[in-house]
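Side project, low priority. Logging it here so it doesn't get lost.
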Amino acid sequence: MARSPSVESMNRPRPDSVAVAALLTMLVAFGPISTDMYLPSLPALVSDFGSDVPTVQLTLSVFLVAFAVSMLVYGPLSDRFGRRPVLIGAIAIYVVASVACALAPTIEALIAARAMQAVGCCAGPVLARAVVRDVYGRERAAAVLSYMGTAMALAPAIGPVLGGWLQVVYGWQATFWVLTAFSGVALVGVLTMLDETNAHRNPDALSMRGMLHAYRTLLSHRGYVGYVATIAACYSIIFSFISGSSFVLIQVVGLTADVYGLCFAAMVIGYMSGTFISGRFGRRIGLDRLILTGATIATAAGVAMAGFAWAGETHIETIVIPQVIAMLGVGLVFPNCQAGAIGPFPTMAGAASSLLGFSQMGVAAAVGLAIGLTFDGTARPMATAIAIAALMTLLSFRLIVWPVRPRA
């Protein structure tokens, strides 16, 4: 027999309300704000800890590996116990880990604290996407994720600007105190605003048999595999820039940390433009055509950036302008790929979102590590990685998904 809602639950806003959409946007922003806000501090970490570039890059790559692996657990956990209690526990972990990051005495301690931070962080985007799938259908979910992406992009737009200012005025520790406050506000929001949305709880979701069945079902679905491959390559466009841009623009081009933050914000404006176009015209044009258009735009921009880098033309405009254009394409690809991948699986939305996130972050972690190891004092490694990732985005979608896409 269904339980009657508690008085506390009845006082919360509806799951499809603007207030809950704003909270979900904040949860999705956990990932980018946790990586982007401290980017202006990466060169300073090298000198403050007496370390080197590849070791400092591990604060990004280890974060992504822990983020990716934890995603495989949170989806089934939420399919079994519900979205709300899992979110509460994960955000509490993030709060503690952010304090540990701010107090880290060595680069090794910071890397360990970042791994713990990632364990709590990844529940936000995984379960926010699952909540959207719980509440909306496939096509509506694409539009909602697009508008959430537009609003969420304010976080990485503001993050590096704020992080650059914090680095110049207070040092890198201040960034992690701000992240502590951000996660505390999110925790209060989930406790007071978010009702449970999982109406298909699966008692076998955490059994080895149940998890293997869910992931086997997903991996046998050609459309799902294609969307996941596309979004993993597409995120590598973003993470290639995240991983290498602070060293290229600060050390090679010679920008200050706060000016670098403004350049990063320009990139986010490109992404916001793409997600806005997607939300405005997605239902009219169709999510698959928008993905193909976005992948084509990103490929052209990525190849252009690589061409400038290999020609020795490394200037602020030859880096930032192509990346802004590439991010417009990414904004068309990202929300539509997420909706296309998760849409067909209402009873295993958590598992579908987890596997998508694991693939996305795992590939990006490998790309980030490669950029750190191959950094040669030029823009060539980063620009080449962006061009290859964009081309793989286009090929993954065109060769795997496009031939079997649903026809209107």
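Brief comment: Residues 1-8 have pLDDT under 50 and may be disordered.
Revisit when time allows.
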